[in-house]
Write a structure and sequence with these properties.
The protein contains no helices and seven strands. The protein has 76 residues and is mostly beta strands. It has one domain: RNA polymerase II/Efflux pump adaptor protein, barrel-sandwich hybrid domain (OB fold (Dihydrolipoamide Acetyltransferase, E2P)), CATH 2.40.50. A hairpin with a 4-residue loop joins strand 4 and strand 5. It starts with a strand and ends with a strand.
Length: 76
């Protein structure tokens, strides 16, 4: 069953600066997958799940991403 990597709750209104993984890459729980930036902080997003990066929902440069918005989809 697919699962989503989502925008962390503390990072609402952020910009996705860059992806650290590509579609097709295996992802382990805790792997850093993307860099997010707000006007106050920068954060690397870690995956809460393991799987394969199946789809990117927010491209690099996407701004004003709200908390819990889907960033990517992992498949088993």
């Amino acid at each position: 069953m697919p699962v989503y990597i989502v925008m962390p709750e503390e990072m609402h209104g952020g910009t996705l600066v860059r992806w650290l993984k590509r579609v097709g890459d295996p992802i382990a729980k805790g792997d850093l997958v993307a860099e997010i930036e707000t006007d106050k902080a920068s954060l690397e997003v870690a995956s809460q799940y393991a799987g394969v990066l199946a789809e990117i929902c927010a491209s690099e440069g996407t701004a004003n991403i709200q908390a819990n918005a889907p960033l990517a989809v992992l498949s088993e």
